[in-house]
Amino acid sequence: MRSERGFTLLEVLVATVIMAIAVVALLSTLTTSMRNAARLTDYDRATLLARAKMDELLATSKLPRRTMMEGTWPATQAAGLQAGWRATVSPVDLPPVPAPGVWLLDRIELQVWWMNGENRRTFQLEGYRRGILTEQDIAAGLIAQ
Prior knowledge:
Blueprint: H1 9-59, E1 69-72, E2 83-93, E3 103-116, E4 119-132, H2 135-139
Antiparallel strand pairs: 1-2, 2-3, 3-4
């Protein structure tokens, strides 16, 4: 009996088909991973922009109460991401007798949005800070007595 070395044509074809299936599965997984990484990169960028805007709002003492403020970030600051924000400052812990110069607690609600292709994504942040009641707040009726 003669022992031949090497592979038959059928064995080579079967090995090639198995290798092709493995490569297709690997490329599919890689594509999904890249898509998820890009989505998370946009979310991370929006989170950084939101934290910076919240810090700015918390540090600004002269924000109007119960007024919608909004804006967008320049493409250079947002690294090409089309993104914007909307914020409202409202008093949550009023003194028993509202008077100018009295301390109160303000809640800042910040909504951040960004575009992911055709879809608009959003999330909200909330922050609290101490504020001083002004005559304008009382005159405008912004503080319920």
